[in-house]
Automatic annotation (TrEMBL):
PANTHER family: PROTEIN CBG09852-RELATED (PTHR37443), SECRETED PROTEIN (PTHR37443:SF3). It comes from the Eukaryota. This is Uncharacterized protein. InterPro entries: T19C3.2-like (IPR040271).
Amino acid sequence: MIFSVEGGRPVIPFYVAERVCTVKDLGGESQVQACEVDYDQLKENGAECRLWPSPRVDLSSVEPVFRKHITALEWYSCLPQEKTFNVAGRKFTEKVCRCCCFPFQPNPVTYQCEHIPGAPPAPGMEFLRKELGN
């Protein structure tokens, strides 16, 4: 699919694809659990658990018409989670963000990354059938 940018130039849309790794690829670690990201740090991006766009990423050298598309990319899907810890008999709670890369989103109960219905498959997704429970 090609679209035109003001001024008449044709542009191929941005496609970001990260090959999904299996437990075997990662030396026994699973990529299915949603990543934990600092809640307070992401809140600085303007909303709860907002990973992108971030004012910390300098896009000033990018042409404005492209910058608009880059900041609109939905690279990640994040949800807040409240975790409880017991340290020396005292109970502590901490809020974190749980994030998955597109085309996955965190399950609000298990915090595992699940494929977004209707989204294109991720490269290598077929190798995660067991891990994703498919």
